[in-house]
Amino acid sequence: EDKVVQSPLSLVVHEGDTVTLNCSYEVTNFRSLLWYKQEKKAPTFLFMLTSSGIEKKSGRLSSILDKKELSSILNITATQTGDSAIYLCAVGNPTGTASKLTFGTGTRLQVTL
Amino acid sequence: EAGVTQSPTHLIKTRGQQATLRCSPISGHTSVYWYQQALGLGLQFLLWYDEGEERNRGNFPPRFSGRQFPNYSSELNVNALELEDSALYLCASSFTGEGRTEAFFGQGTRLTVV
User: Fold this and answer.
1) Minimum-distance CB partner of A102 among B45, B55, B100
2) A69 membership: H or E segment, kind and range
3) First CA to last CA distance, chain A
């Protein structure tokens, strides 16, 4: 069965700190790894990483895919209170042209003043 | 462009009743995913539809069922509701061409079973 594991489960940091969130996966056939941020209800899409795009950056957020280690990290530098959220990792497992998405349970990040 | 829309936003049902949740994907998206998120827990995969077919289902009893219509909108039905079915139900849609898999979520339906 496909599995996505995220660590740590929760994290409390001070504003300005840098954090690294981890995601590891075991899937039968890997296509992509996606990161989402969930604040209240709907998770919002952050990044998609594939074999042809193993590193992405947007502002203070960046992510790297390590296909050899079957894992990914999400880095957030100079954290702000607005970064407080649950960060979800999902892996796309292709079936034909579509993909099943399997999510990890998420990392709850709390940024304090 | 409209995002993924879900209805209703909130739903209160009594134990034993049936609930129907609806999802309209982003225009052009053919895949719809349903997830259950109980309070304090992660997203549990329920169902995945693509091109009108059920492609996969998670570890949920048969009283959780659904369908996808020709316009790619989808319905999730939960029969014989139990108290533990109370959760946020999220729908996501994705485009399946060219190997793209990023999925976008709706705001969810909060189902409360009393």
Assistant:
1) B45
2) none
3) 41
